Amino acid sequence: MDWINYHHLFYFWMIVKEGSVTGASKKLRLSQSTLSEQLKILEQRIGEPLFDRVKKNLILNQTGSITFEYCEQIFKSGQELFSHLKNRETPQKRKIIRIGSQVSLSKNLQFQFLKQSLNDKSVSVRVLQGSLSDLALMLETYQVDLVLTDTQLIHNQKIQLQTQELLVAPICVVGAKNLVKKIDKKNIKTINGIPLFLPTYSHRTRSQIDYLIESESIKPNIIGEIEDPALMRFFAISGKGLAFVPEIVVQNEIQSKELEICFKLDRVNEIFYVTTLKRSKPDPLIKGLIQSFLNHR
After folding, report:
1. Which end of the chain is flanked by fewer CB atoms within 10 Å, N or C?
2. Tens digit of pLDDT for each residue in 51-67?
3. From the DSSP assignment, how many helices (H) and strands (E) are in the chain?
4. Distances from the Cα of 60 to the Cαs of 139, 204, 268, in angstroms?
5. Please, how many CA atoms are within 13 Å of residue 134, restricted to the half-sphere of its CB?
6. How many CB atoms lie within 10 A of CB 262?
């Protein structure tokens, strides 16, 4: 029987989890040279490199990703063994779906996307957040299975990604009752002088909103430019101004009547995307999760 040194696997596993040899060496209190040597021995035993070396950085490759997934199972099984020996209930094994999401992405959208998986007792989800560049790197290095964003990812052209639209959400002008009563909902020009919260220019929709305001000869009273839609929602609830947000961001507040829609801007939409690595045989769990959302949106 072929034998593999599990200490070597453990060191490799920690290097991936900590993001570098330096991080793992601090965590394990071992020298970097020791860990590098152990990693080299493991790669020689497997017969293939586990990382691509790019400008002194270790980028997990496909072989490394497969090895890491087995390490996850091996060391999780070890924890379950100790749990069992200590007469604790052994948790049911679940398939982990690893999801990366843009920091400023609508939390309502993320929950709507994930909630179907919560009914599956064989699945658990791990949600990581980051910037667009962080998420592209996570996907390329097999740290996540899919990424949710409101902008298409710019990525290493050597890696094939598959991006599809999840949802096209209209932008709405919403506000608390004290401001909405001042508005004629049939005439958007009546927002003249009313305090407004707009998305920052990092959002694709901002230029469209600016064009709408200019074309309607509106004189905007902009008191805030907010990148995070969730934060803009709180500002709108405060009654200090009207907010331009995707409808999905405020759907709960509209249902509870904390906020009202003044206008729905049919010509201004936020597009949400899901991106995965392009594979010859897509993971059926990932494919099913995406399709479930598309069927229920």
Report:
1. N
2. 988 877 888 899 998 89
3. 11, 10
4. 10, 32, 39
5. 12
6. 21
Which CATH code fits 168-271?
3.40.190.10
What is the domain partition of the chain in residue ranges? Answer: 6-85, 95-167+273-296, 168-271
CATH number for region 6-85:
1.10.10.10
pLDDT at 90: 45
* Token pair recorded at residue 67: 């090895």
Prediction pTM value: 0.65
Q: Which residues contact 127 (CB under 8 A, 6 or more apart)?
A: 99, 100, 101, 110, 114
Q: Which residues contact 63 (CB under 8 A, 6 or more apart)?
A: 46, 48, 49, 50
Question: CA–CA distance from 255 to each of 105, 251, 258, 259, 278 (Å)?
Answer: 21, 6, 8, 8, 38
Closest of 229, 167, 237 to residue 199, by C-alpha: 229
Q: 95-167+273-296 and 168-271: same fold?
A: yes
